[in-house]
């Protein structure tokens, strides 16, 4: 740990250290994966670089809970380190926290290390909650296969409407919705949400503002501004733009 008392990645005062996932509610990463799920095609947007985006959401959740800190360096070179002595109770968060707790590491390193293992367990959680369902189908009328379809909970529609209100209507975001919108923008997947979220110049401008920390004056937004915009979103953009295009 850094003896100079590093500031929380999220900025401001540490929030409830249990985090939503550890209280039984869906984590930020679960909500992000649910939003990226495309019901019309049964696919997940941004698969090529999905693990960076999901890792960013996990790191954001840890920051929101006051369990991860930054060393205050420039956004593109910020190192992450763990706060506290008690690991998170949520298995996914605990694994990420334990990795960071071993020694301070660059955010880029953390994203690359924790991301590849996230898709399957997060998808399993969405299926267990009923937000997404896995159904059996026959391919070409011959081969048994499985497909993903939207569940009956309505959670994805509610999340999408909340993000739309921020990006299209200019509503001031809560910390959670602000983080989701900024991560979606940083991942480069927002165009795939048109027409629900129209891909217009005002929306593009608002999305970039969220990436950069301009969320509004509300106290809720202050808690994660530095995390999502100056550190995590920036590193996701660097990571994803360095990847070869999808075939």
Identify the overall geometry. globular
Helix content, binned percent: 40-55%
Binned strand content: 5-15%
Estimated structural class: alpha+beta
Describe, in plain words, how this protein is organized in 3D.
The chain has helices at 19-22, 28-36, 50-64, 91-102, 107-114, 119-129, 155-167, 175-187, 201-211, 219-222, 225-241, and strands at residues 7-8, 37-38, 43-44, 68-70, 79-82, 105-106, 132-139, 143-150. The protein starts with 6 loop residues before the first strand and ends in a 6-residue tail after the last helix. α3 packs across α5, α3 packs antiparallel against α8 (175-187) and α3 (50-64) packs antiparallel against α11 (225-241). A hairpin with an 8-residue loop joins β4 and β5. It is 47% helix and 13% strand. It has 247 residues and is α+β, with helices and mostly antiparallel strands. The strands form 3 sheets. A 4-stranded antiparallel β-sheet has the order 1-4-5-6. It is built from 11 helices and 8 strands.
List keywords for this structure.
globular, 4-stranded antiparallel β-sheet, 247 residues, alpha+beta, two-stranded antiparallel sheet, single chain, 13% strand
Short synopsis of the structure:
By secondary structure, this protein is α+β, with helices and mostly antiparallel strands. The chain has helices at 19-22, 28-36, 50-64, 91-102, 107-114, 119-129, 155-167, 175-187, 201-211, 219-222, 225-241, and strands spanning 7-8, 37-38, 43-44, 68-70, 79-82, 105-106, 132-139, 143-150.
Write the layout of secondary structure elements.
Layout: E1 7-8, H1 19-22, H2 28-36, E2 37-38, E3 43-44, H3 50-64, E4 68-70, E5 79-82, H4 91-102, E6 105-106, H5 107-114, H6 119-129, E7 132-139, E8 143-150, H7 155-167, H8 175-187, H9 201-211, H10 219-222, H11 225-241
Antiparallel strand pairs: 1-4, 2-3, 4-5, 5-6, 7-8
């Amino acid at each position: 740990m850094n003896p100079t008392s590093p500031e929380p990645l999220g900025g401001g005062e540490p929030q409830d250290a249990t985090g939503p996932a550890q209280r039984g509610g869906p984590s930020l990463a679960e909500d992000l994966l649910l939003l990226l799920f495309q019901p019309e095609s049964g696919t997940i947007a941004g698969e090529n670089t999905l693990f960076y985006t999901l890792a960013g959401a996990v790191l954001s959740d840890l920051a929101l809970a006051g369990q991860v800190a930054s060393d205050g360096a420039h956004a593109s070179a910020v190192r992450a380190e763990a706060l506290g002595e008690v690991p998170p109770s949520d298995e996914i968060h605990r694994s990420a926290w334990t990795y960071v707790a071993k020694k301070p590491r660059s955010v880029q390193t953390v994203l690359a290390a924790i991301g590849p293992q996230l898709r399957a367990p997060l998808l399993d959680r969405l299926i267990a909650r009923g937000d997404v369902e896995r159904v059996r189908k026959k391919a070409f009328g011959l081969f048994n296969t499985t497909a993903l379809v939207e569940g009956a909970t309505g959670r994805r529609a509610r999340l999408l409407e909340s993000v739309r209100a921020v990006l299209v209507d200019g509503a001031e975001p809560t910390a959670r919705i602000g983080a989701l919108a900024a991560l979606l923008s940083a991942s480069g997947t927002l165009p795939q949400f048109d027409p629900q979220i129209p891909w217009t110049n005002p929306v593009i401008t608002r999305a970039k503002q969220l990436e950069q920390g301009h969320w509004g004056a509300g106290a809720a937004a202050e808690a994660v501004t530095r995390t999502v915009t100056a550190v995590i979103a920036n590193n996701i953009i660097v990571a994803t733009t360095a990847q070869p295009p999808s075939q």
